[in-house]
Design a protein that fits this description.
two-stranded antiparallel sheet; 310 residues; alpha/beta; single chain
Length: 310
């Protein structure tokens, strides 16, 4: 396919919106319902787009449609273009309203209690008119938000391999330690083993997260079954209050556990578990001015935190 076809005036923004809706819904009918238009309009627009590109974007079957190899590639680029336009619209809206801009940052556990608040405070001291929106969610939800343009960047644990169309920047490494409330009976034990600790309730990360996989591997290596009495939680406020109200244990980033006066580290270092803390952002579009300024402050604050976890 000649790339000039995409610039000859036939490709419209509605094509990008329609193709991403079809990919998300897995059905032309559901895409039409989602966009509040008729099915023939969606079908016609998809045919136009495939004619422009010269390749099939979806395979049709009785349950709906699935993207072809070409479709997966083009939908990814379509999402990036739409995300860039949403960002441009948001920036223009803030400028028109007299603001300097806004930044939406996603966070999940690591970096949530010190790194991000300190960087936000520094940003607001320098630029009071910048609006900062913080969203807490699971890593996969946050990454989807970055790809769609709803989130500018993520502060938290980095994955071993950057997901497609995302780039990562490590700021420091932080150990993961077991913690419980300060008056928990477990603190009377000297170097308790995982088998002994398994007798207590646990708070574990949700399935399909990196920390959950590492904890499961740790239990397997020690030939100990995963605790049957457990809660799976990603919300730090909920997790913290549960720890204080029960005899539960939890694996937490060191800076979260040590900075909370109501929590105390358990005398069982998880030597095999540490995490790279840093930033995740889009690889195919630049950060907005406000997001780039926040990144600068995150880097500055991270240098001081790195010394606390050495």
């Amino acid at each position: 396919m000649e790339s000039e076809r995409l610039l000859d005036g036939r490709l419209k923004l509605r094509h990008l919106t329609l193709v991403t809706a079809i990919a998300d819904q897995g059905s032309v009918i559901r895409a039409a319902q989602e966009l509040h238009i008729t099915q023939p309009v969606v079908t016609r627009a998809l045919h136009e787009l495939e004619t422009i590109l010269g390749v099939p974007l979806f395979e049709r079957h009785h349950r709906g449609v699935t993207p072809t190899l070409y479709g997966e590639s083009f939908v990814g680029h379509a999402r990036a273009v739409l995300a860039q336009l949403r960002q441009a619209g948001a920036e223009l809206g803030h400028l028109a309203a007299g603001h300097l801009g806004s930044v939406t940052v996603g966070v999940h556990l690591a970096g949530s209690n010190l790194l991000l608040p300190r960087a936000m405070a520094a940003l607001k001291r320098a630029h009071p008119a910048v609006t900062v929106v913080v969203r807490e969610a699971t890593p996969d939800t946050l990454r989807a938000g970055v790809l769609s343009g709803e989130i500018d960047l993520i502060v938290g644990r980095l994955s071993g391999q950057p997901p497609r169309r995302l780039t990562q920047e490590q700021l420091y490494r932080e150990p993961v330690r077991l913690a419980a409330r300060t008056d928990h009976p477990v603190h009377r034990l000297r170097h308790p083993s995982l088998a002994e600790l398994r007798r207590y309730p646990w708070v574990l990360p949700v399935d399909r997260t990196s920390l959950r996989a590492e904890l499961e591997e740790l239990f397997t290596h020690a030939d100990v079954e995963l605790p049957a009495d457990r809660v799976e939680c990603t919300s730090m406020p909920t997790l913290r209050h549960f720890l204080l109200a029960t005899d539960a244990l939890a694996a937490l980033p060191l800076l979260i556990a040590t900075q909370d006066p109501d929590l105390r580290l358990i005398d069982t270092p998880l030597k095999s578990i540490s995490q790279a803390v840093g930033l995740t952002r889009p690889a195919d579009r630049p950060l907005s001015p406000a997001a780039d300024t926040l990144r600068t402050h995150l880097r500055q604050e991270a240098r001081g935190l790195a010394r606390l976890v050495e």
